[in-house]
Amino acid sequence: MHEITTDDVPEALGPYSQGIVSGDTVHVSGKTGVDPDTGEAPESVAEQTTQTLANVAAILEAAGTTPDAIVTATVYLTDMDDYDAVNEAYESFLSEPYPARTCVEVSRLPAPLDVEITVTAELDDD
């Protein structure tokens, strides 16, 4: 097992790794839509979702894989009424076959944001 870190995403808000490689998989901690360059997040949940997935992709790239290798995803929303907007952004970022996914509404996230996503992905065999 080894840790994956990259300066291309915001720093962790607590004592956890951005990602962990274990065996042939990468486990990415929950990421949000904070832009690493500005430290700010977009207002719309769709834009937050797109930035969140870009942050996830940066960690996957640092581990040596891509979003196409995502096997499972968990999406946390602070308002399930945002489900359709999140799905639209999610669908435009990922391709078929889509990963297995769970989506749940939570009362709040560690930062005042609307969406957080965690994934598990396969490493390339190369």
From TrEMBL:
Residues 1-10 have a biased composition (Acidic residues). Pfam families: Ribonuc_L-PSP (PF01042). Residues 1-44 are annotated as: Disordered. One of its GO terms (cellular component) is cytosol. GO terms for molecular function: deaminase activity. Signal peptide: none annotated. It comes from the Archaea. Belongs to the RutC family. This is Reactive intermediate/imine deaminase.
